[in-house]
Amino acid sequence: MYSFARCVVLAFALCLPAAAMASEAAREKTIAVRVQVDAAGKVQSAKALPDPDGVEALNNIAVGLAQKLPFTPAKKDGAAAPSETTLFLKLRMEPKPDGQFGIRLVHASNGPHVVEMGRIRLPENKGLRSRATIVVSVPLREDGTPEVDGMKTEKVDMTNGSAFDEARYVSAIEGSLRHSRFEPDKVGGVAVRTRANLPYQFGGGGGGRGRGGKDAPGDDAKDTASVPGVTEVSDQAGVELPKVIFTPAPVAK
């Protein structure tokens, strides 16, 4: 069991021993927590989702924070209803003079979480050097599978990119979504058909190939993408989804 001195849960700021946050890469972490919310917008249960890179202490903190966050409740046919959704809590670890780390909740959002993400496969003839963030919207069926034919490109932000690059990135996203599945929100115990906004971040790839026609080391890593956040709206008549209410608070001194 972990012990946290001078922890202020209600202000969303807690403390961890420095030894628990030894890695620089662990200074910021987004943790997914599945929550059940009642018709009054109060969280009734919360459970951190499995994460191979997760830290138990941070998961416990995230669950505690999730239980205290209020929601605008879901609605069905105009009446408030219980719901189930996934919270995405971004925690930032900030060093303190006493050698500990203050832990601050800097962002909270909710929506469907990824159960299975299809691999991003860019064309064999790579050469994509642009960095890009591409936001697409896609209908999600009640079982969490995307209707790829209904996908729309909502926003494109590229560095040194072209229309050709954009088309290749969008094609790669379509291919990934055909093999992806999400855990949808539920209202009144029933999964809801939604339209989700998915922001894909591409790092840009090296165009070279190694000797013998093989990919040069590191090419695959440069041409991968990440999905940093997912939001959604109900695509089902008479149903409104729950929405977390969050206002950032400073680290306790």
What can you see in these coordinates?
The chain has 253 residues and is mainly beta. It has 2 domains: 13-112 and 238-244, no CATH class; 114-229, no CATH class. The chain contains 3 helices and 19 strands. It has helices at residues 56-66, 163-177, 219-222; strands at 13-16, 28-37, 43-48, 71-72, 74-76, 79-81, 83-95, 101-111, 113-116, 131-140, 152-159, 181-183, 186-187, 190-191, 194-202, 225-226, 231-234, 239-240, 243-244. Strands 1, 2, 3, 7, 8, 13 and 14 form a 7-stranded antiparallel sheet that branches. Strands 10, 11, 15, 16 and 17 form a 5-stranded antiparallel sheet that branches.
Produce the secondary structure layout.
Elements: E1 13-16, E2 28-37, E3 43-48, H1 56-66, E4 71-72, E5 74-76, E6 79-81, E7 83-95, E8 101-111, E9 113-116, E10 131-140, E11 152-159, H2 163-177, E12 181-183, E13 186-187, E14 190-191, E15 194-202, H3 219-222, E16 225-226, E17 231-234, E18 239-240, E19 243-244
Antiparallel strand pairs: 1-8, 2-3, 2-7, 4-19, 5-6, 5-18, 7-8, 7-13, 9-12, 10-11, 10-15, 13-14, 15-16, 15-17
Task: Give a nutshell description of this structure.
With 253 residues, the protein is mainly beta.
Strand content: 35-45%
- SSE order in H/E notation? EEEHEEEEEEEEHEEEEHEEEE
Tell me the radius of gyration: 20 Å
Overall geometry: globular
Number of domains: 2
Give the overall pLDDT as a whole number: 79
Uncertain residue ranges: 1-26, 205-225
Amino-to-carboxy terminus distance: 24 Å
Structural category = mainly beta
According to DSSP, the number of beta strands is 19
Number of H/I helices: 3
* Helical coverage, percent range: 10-25%
The major pleated sheet works out as: 7 strands, antiparallel
